[in-house]
Inverse folding.
């Protein structure tokens, strides 16, 4: 496996940073503006550059997934806190329902949120399609 040159590594970084514009990435990596288009296209076909792009995209996706998990945890904390009665015995049902709706969106479950009948103790049921 051949290592990439510094210029090629800069190309990869710039390509991902500028919205996948190979010409601009080639220019930022130090290739001539006159040949940037053809250099960018050539670099995208380079096997090791393809592998590095895939590796960097996977890293980005994994870091996004971690942040999505953190967001879910924060929403779950909001739900839990909202459903705890304050000194007056009241709960913040609207905030809990909004947080549940956001969690459902993140999970791809757009089904309605069900609540018990008025007059019964507050109890929110989360309709999850994945069996949680």
């Amino acid at each position: 496996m051949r290592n990439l040159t510094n210029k090629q590594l800069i190309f990869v970084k710039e390509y991902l940073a500028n919205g996948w514009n190979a010409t601009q990435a080639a220019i930022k990596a130090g290739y001539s503006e006159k040949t940037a288009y053809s250099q960018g296209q050539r670099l995208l076909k380079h096997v090791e550059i393809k592998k590095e792009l895939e590796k960097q995209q996977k890293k980005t996706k994994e870091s996004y997934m971690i942040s999505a998990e953190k967001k879910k945890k924060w929403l779950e904390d909001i739900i839990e806190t909202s459903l705890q009665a304050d000194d007056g015995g009241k709960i913040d049902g609207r905030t809990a329902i909004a947080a549940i709706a956001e969690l459902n969106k993140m999970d791809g479950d757009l089904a309605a949120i069900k609540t018990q009948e008025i007059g019964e103790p507050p109890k929110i049921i989360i309709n999850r399609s994945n069996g949680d």
